[in-house]
């Protein structure tokens, strides 16, 4: 039985594993990744000098910090287009003010908490349900957005490896040409999916799996939006790195995508420690670790902490001003209590 998801990314299979087996596989994968990260952290920590890190952070040029902050703001602005394109695909019209608020708050919180489907989906439900969307519509938005990000990180990471494989080759200790070949195959696969979406409206079958594809136009827009968001995010961190790092932008973008992907799979909240470790391992031969760690700390503050604080303030203000929700219910209860006491 096939079920077409919003954004067309859902995969079904005749031999799907039982739910408990899927959960066990996910848990084991996460534990293995966390174990490997712990070992990697021990390796990286040998070159860790706190004084060197804080000195680098204090001496960061304000121009670089401002540029990185602007790139982060641009990334979050583009991120709102995930939900905009999802609503357009579903044929639902909402004012951008509502969509921008709901998507920004959802991503700012899910980026820090992890488990984006639950955390980001809960925030979206709180905002979008008030605007009249059903739980099913909101679930489709979440699926569409997840598909969009997956396409974007796959395309951007593969393109980065194809252009600059040196950092990845050094990290994995494999020939650069081998990584370029794999990246080329991934790009060809994405191109084939886009062509298949253009020429057929039926689910594409591969062995026992069935892929319900969106239209080619939708798929291309998903790739463009997500790739732009990832490039802006990577550029923000790249701007903060020490000049002597000497890593090209596309090389760094490939490493950035690898760090993001592994952090997401690990299910560690915000990818804290996992993302940083992957990048430090990739940059270990490109300058002292202190500068890279300082850049990562500054980036985490700009990309994670500041948006989270802003989202919290916006959500609290929205709840206070709204005629619904727990704050409004508390105000009505206080008013009734005051009326009875008079």
UniProtKB/TrEMBL annotation:
Gene Ontology CC terms, in alphabetical order: plasma membrane
Domain of life: Bacteria
Record keywords, A-Z: Membrane, Transmembrane, Transmembrane helix
Keyword Membrane among UniProt keywords: yes
Residues that span the membrane, as ranges: 20-41, 53-79, 99-120, 141-164, 176-199, 220-241, 253-281, 301-318
Protein name, UniProt field: Lysylphosphatidylglycerol synthase-like protein
Organism: Nitrospirillum amazonense
């Amino acid at each position: 039985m096939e079920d077409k998801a919003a954004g067309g990314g859902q995969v079904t299979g005749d031999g799907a594993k039982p739910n408990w087996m899927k959960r066990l596989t996910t848990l084991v994968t996460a534990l293995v990744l966390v174990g490997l990260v712990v070992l990697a952290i021990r390796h990286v920590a040998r070159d860790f000098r706190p004084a060197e890190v804080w000195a680098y952070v204090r001496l960061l040029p304000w121009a670089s910090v401002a540029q990185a902050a602007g790139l982060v703001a641009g990334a979050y602005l583009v991120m709102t287009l995930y939900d905009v394109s999802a609503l357009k695909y579903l044929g639902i019209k909402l004012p951008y003010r509502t969509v921008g608020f709901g998507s920004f708050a959802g991503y700012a919180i899910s980026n820090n908490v992890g488990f984006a489907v639950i955390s980001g989906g809960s925030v979206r439900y709180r905002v979008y349900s008030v605007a009249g969307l059903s739980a099913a519509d909101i679930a489709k938005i979440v699926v569409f957005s997840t598909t969009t990000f997956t396409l974007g990180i796959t395309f951007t990471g593969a393109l980065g490896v194809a252009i600059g494989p040196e950092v990845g080759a050094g990290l994995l200790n494999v020939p650069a040409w081998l990584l370029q070949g794999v990246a080329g195959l991934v790009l060809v696969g994405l191109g084939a999916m886009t062509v298949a979406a253009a020429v057929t409206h039926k689910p594409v079958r591969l062995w026992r799996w069935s892929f319900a594809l969106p239209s080619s136009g939708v798929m291309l827009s998903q790739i463009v939006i997500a790739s732009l968001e990832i490039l802006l995010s990577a550029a923000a961190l790249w701007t903060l790195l020490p000049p002597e790092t000497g890593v090209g932008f596309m090389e760094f973008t490939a490493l950035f995508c690898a760090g993001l992907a592994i952090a997401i799979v690990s299910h560690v909240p915000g990818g804290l420690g996992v993302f940083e470790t992957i990048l430090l391992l990739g940059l270990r031969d490109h300058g002292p670790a202190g500068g890279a760690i300082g850049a990562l700390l500054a980036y985490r503050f700009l990309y994670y902490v500041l948006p989270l604080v802003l989202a919290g303030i916006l959500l609290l203000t929205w709840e206070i001003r709204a005629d619904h929700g727990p704050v409004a219910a508390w105000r009505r209860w206080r008013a009734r209590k005051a009326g009875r006491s008079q």
